[in-house]
Amino acid sequence: MIGNFLDQFWSLTFGGLSLGFIYILIALGYTMVYGVLRMINFANSEVFMVATFATIIIIRDVFNFTQTSEYATGFRLWLILGTALVASMVVAGVLSVLIELVAYRRLRRMNSGILAPLISAIGVSMVLAEAVRIMTDSRPVASPRAMEKSFLGKFFDADVRLDNTIIIVAAIILLVILLAFVNKTRLGKAIRAVSMNPSAAKLMGINIDGVVSITFLVGGLMTGAAGFFYVLKYENSSFSIGFELGIAAFTAAILGGIGNIKGAFYGGLALGLLETYASFFLGTQWKAVTVFVILVLVLYTRPNGLFGEAMTQSRA
Amino acid sequence: MSNSVISLKNVTMKFGGVTALNDVTFDVKQGEILGLIGPNGAGKTTVFNVITGVYRITSGDIVFDGKSLVGSKRYKITKRGVARTFQNIRLWGDMTALENVITATDTHKKSGLLSGLFGMPISRKEEKRDKARAQELLDFIGIGDYADRLAKNLPYGVQRRLEIARALGTNPKLVLLDEPAAGFNPSEKVELAATIRKIRDAGYTVLLIEHDMSLVMKVSDRVVVLDFGQKIADDAPSKVQDDPRVIEAYLGVPEDAS
Amino acid sequence: MINLRDKGADIWERSNRIERTFIALGFIALAASLPFFGGTFLNTPIADYESVLVYPVAMFVLMAIGLNIVIGKSGLLDLGYVAFFAIGAYTMGLLGTRTGLNTWEILPIGIAMAMFSGVILGVPALKLRGDYLAIITLGFGEIVRIVALNLETLGRSGGILNIPTPPPVFGIEYSFDSHRIYYWTLLIIILLAIWMVRRLAVRRAGRAWESIRQDEDAAELLGVPTFKYKVWAFVLGASVGGAAGVFYASKTLFIAPDNFTLQISILILACVVFGGMGNIWGVILGAVILGYLPDRIRFLSDARLLVFGLVLVIMMNLRPDGLLPRKKREKPLPKEAK
Question: Quick check: pTM over 0.95?
Fold first, then answer.
């Protein structure tokens, strides 16, 4: 068993890393909103689900790929991938902003605690998942393969697959852009100000509603990118995909320390790898259990997550 | 010499690199009103927080009623006889004033969840007794008429007083009052001073944080002054007022004088 | 908006003991007579009306009452309540098919199992920050389902078949198609649960939970053993869920992991918040509506869950405190009036 594991270590690690980056991007949708609102963005999972369908529609219906089409190459390939990525991000970003308007805004203004918005977000999730379920006849939908999954070469005996490589490289680029946005731009600084101290930020003249919308937009964009990468990697989607990946990504956010971007990064990577390794040893059916046991152990020893900054001590 | 209710012995409290309390030693004697004053950030509320177990002290000891409080759970410290109010009012807003106080009296109930569920006589008896006791306390503190009003809807001054009644509900030996007169007008302050004395006369020992110097000086039997986490004075009010170190702490030292 | 809860409380407080008894009996009679309205506008298309009354309606009411202790009373966000329901059901399934024990003998065992797992989960989880409780309970709910899905003993995805019906009580037979007998039995269990919650709410435990919900730090500093009461809330909530599970298994005669998905946890949570968190009558109303509605609107066939989701969004935006919110009103001040 161990021998097998060592043989496959690098190929498992690559798969785990690309899954990890998908988790990171979805986790950002949770963690950024949590940072600003201290609320669980429950509908983020369905934003992801919708984004996967946006990608499939671009590949299948806009560029007319079928299961038997020849692979695209060269410029056409990058055009297709680029279009699908941008379209998924835009769809998800806009959807995310709309969800904030419908499910959160009014309740937020009424200061109604955390449960009422949670239930209304659950309602939105149900609407989205059910709408897609009805449209897809409750069946999973396969995405035609536009890109040949060629091997780029070997790394310690492990095949380096093109799709995994694209996911890892593109996700890193997105994360760098995100960090630059949050740290360098005015809007990014406003987001950080609100997440540190909303009332002070308001007194300083920051438009809270605007910041919240931007946060949902950015979280949605990242989650949308994850939708594209997911389809690239697994080549299918279904109405229930949001739920599965959403829980995992939310776990990743908490594992790393919810509310900060660094936490989503490490939590997503840790989860992607752990899940892949655990599936190898215990079989895929136990991976969710493994993940949750690890989560509980981590939270028990480090209540703010692996990389979470310690919250200020409880005050009386 | 009268007995100490509580003694802080060389208490030091550090948060990371910041020392909030530095080797602070003082005690509060049975039946006195001890004023705890100092400029902003001097560590007054930190003293309350280490006594009540919110923070665990870095070194030193806190002895209450002959035994150390350090490391005890917060609710057990309360049960042993220390109760407090909060600088920023922290009542349970959706409960009535009376319920706020009854909840505090629950500290010493023998009956718990199961005896309550099965309606055992002890539970009924205690409920009745404590309800009467809570009403008594509200009357004692002068807000008996508000018993059935939700705490969040009470006028500000009544909320401040309810905080005190709730603390008394735990039947403490030592009451810690954290700026009970904050936001009061002069006539309310005069009333409050009378109330604090009344509390002392009823047999409680009082440790009082207050910004209003005239109130502290009028009501306290003794005053401890903190500055940057250190005790700089511990004496009768009249003497503390003239202490050059205290004046320096409050007014700052002119730069050319140092 | 008019506050129905306050109206109701007003009438109740102005009534004397005899009037109150009559009001209570009236409501119980109304609830008990529901199975006879099968032919009226209440009838559910497609699904059997009386069976809908048992599950989901009455079962949701029972579970919502249990979850309300955890969320409504103590403010602990539990997203995995279905776990206790599943544990009760599987206890019934296993013991019912493998031992000679009958439903009534298994009921206390199932409740004990649910309470025990409540302690196992609650003791570590309740020490953590409140936000994390949500994800840990959610994970626990999924773990219970996954374990059921993968253990041979628990029948994997096939579940457990041929679970026995309860033995007759006072000569009343429980056959699998006599829904109203089950319904009335459930009604009695529900009344017991209501009695338990109401009794606790006005005593020390109720005040402890209420103080924890509103300001946990202040509660602890005023002598409330907060951790102990949080675990109690969790365990009592679990016991109600366990009881519901045992009875559910004994009614459907067949259980499988698919009956215990996260969706159930979410639905029960929705019942509690939709109806009016913290107020038992609101919670019951919420559960009746949310349990009944999806079957009543079955004519929308495929779109019914979609409509259900819309209803949740709209209702929460209009009434964030739920249909019958918790106490907001105050008694008049007799002394001030003088």
Answer: no
3-class DSSP assignment, residue C239:
helix
CA A98 to chain centroid, in Å, comes to 18
Residue of B nearest to C227 (CA): B75
Task: Say whether A133 sits in a helix, a strand or coil.
Answer: helix
Measured between beta carbons, the chain B residues lying within 8 angstroms of A314 are 54
- Using CA coordinates, name the residue in chain B closest to C328: B94
Tell which wins on pLDDT, B237 or A309.
B237
Q: Among A103, A127, A125, A126, which residue's Cα sits nearest to residue A115?
A: A103
Residues of chain A with pLDDT under 70: 307-316
φ, ψ dihedrals at C311, nearest 5°: -60, -40
Q: C95 lies in a domain?
A: yes
- The values of phi and psi at residue B53, to 5°, are 85, 10
Q: What is the CATH number of domain A2-301?
A: 1.10.3470
Q: Which domain holds residue C52?
A: 47-260
pLDDT tens digit sequence for C197-223: 988 888 899 999 999 999 999 999 999
Neighbours of chain A (3+ CB pairs under 8 A): B, C
C296 domain residue, yes or no: no
Q: How close does chain C come to A116, measured CA to CA in Å?
A: 5
Does some domain include residue C305? no
The residue in chain C having the minimum alpha-carbon distance to the alpha carbon of residue A129 is C306
Alpha carbon separation from A194 to A37, A198, A216 (Å, rounded): 9, 4, 13
Chosen from C78, C142, C316, C326 to mutate, greatest number of chain A CBs within 10 A: C316
Q: What is the pLDDT of residues B142-172, one digit of tens each?
A: 999 999 999 999 999 999 999 999 999 999 9
pLDDT value for C336:
42
Instruction: Enumerate domains of chain B plus CATH numbers.
Output: 1-81+174-258 (3.40.50.300), 97-171 (no CATH)
d(CA B236, CA C13): 55
Q: What percent of chain C has pLDDT above 90?
A: 52
Is the Cβ pair C312, A243 closer than 8 Å? no
Q: pLDDT tens digit string along A231-279?
A: 999 999 999 899 888 888 988 998 888 888 888 999 999 999 999 998 8
Give the distance from residue B54's alpha carbon to the nearest chain A alpha carbon, in angstroms. 7
What mean pLDDT is predicted for residues B12-36? 93
Closest CA to B75 of C228, C205, C222: C222
Looking at this predicted complex, what is its ipTM?
0.92
Q: What's the whole-number mean pLDDT along residues C139-146? A: 90
Q: Is A310 on the interface with B (CB under 8 A)?
A: no
| Residue B40 DSSP SS3 | coil
> In this predicted structure, what is the pLDDT of residue A284?
82
The residue among C14, C338, C6 whose CA lies nearest residue B145 is C338
Is A112 in Cβ contact with C266 (below 8 Å)? no
Both tokens assigned to A238? 């279904």
